[in-house]
């Protein structure tokens, strides 16, 4: 379960949250604040009251989490922040965002953005979506070793399914298919890509 504490920095009152892997933080309009990832990687999803779910982005350290709400009296959605690794968040009032930006380290930030998500979801074929997701994750979050690429974030079947719009049984079947051809290995909810070129070719070959 997420844990929290409060702190004061440069006259800014803020709260810190610790999310263990797969913990979720729900953001409603009534509790809307601005969040910064101090450490970790999260996937942000927009969830509607009819239970439809759309993953917006996957982001990491020092990113500001933006979860805007419209100005209507009633809204039919909320946001979910799910940790893919052990994550620490800093929460503070929206009016303090400019002060916070001044203290964020100016480093290269990794982000699988809304536009990347659209590129994934534009595929009608779930296999295509999965492969496209893995290729993007390897680019943004992959650890390149001599003979493989490790995507060092926790990706359960449910998490992958929620990102690309599929159920866990379909994800399990597709991952086992890729393992059968020795393209990837799935172990303890982590993915190892053995051959990125073959994975890309497999995507093209199965595009129809």
Automatic annotation (TrEMBL):
GO biological process: regulation of DNA-templated transcription
Listed InterPro entries: cNMP-bd_dom_sf (IPR018490), HTH_CRP (IPR012318), RmlC-like_jellyroll (IPR014710), WH_DNA-bd_sf (IPR036390)
Gene3D superfamilies: Jelly Rolls
The entry's keywords: Chloroplast, DNA-binding, Plastid, Transcription, Transcription regulation
Domain of life assignment: Eukaryota
SUPFAM superfamilies cross-referenced by the UniProt entry: cAMP-binding domain-like, Winged helix' DNA-binding domain
Domain HTH crp-type intervals: 124-197
Molecular function via GO: DNA binding
Alphabetical list of Pfam families matching this protein: HTH_Crp_2 (PF13545)
Protein name per UniProt: Global nitrogen transcriptional regulator
Organism name: Dichotomaria marginata
Gene: ntcA
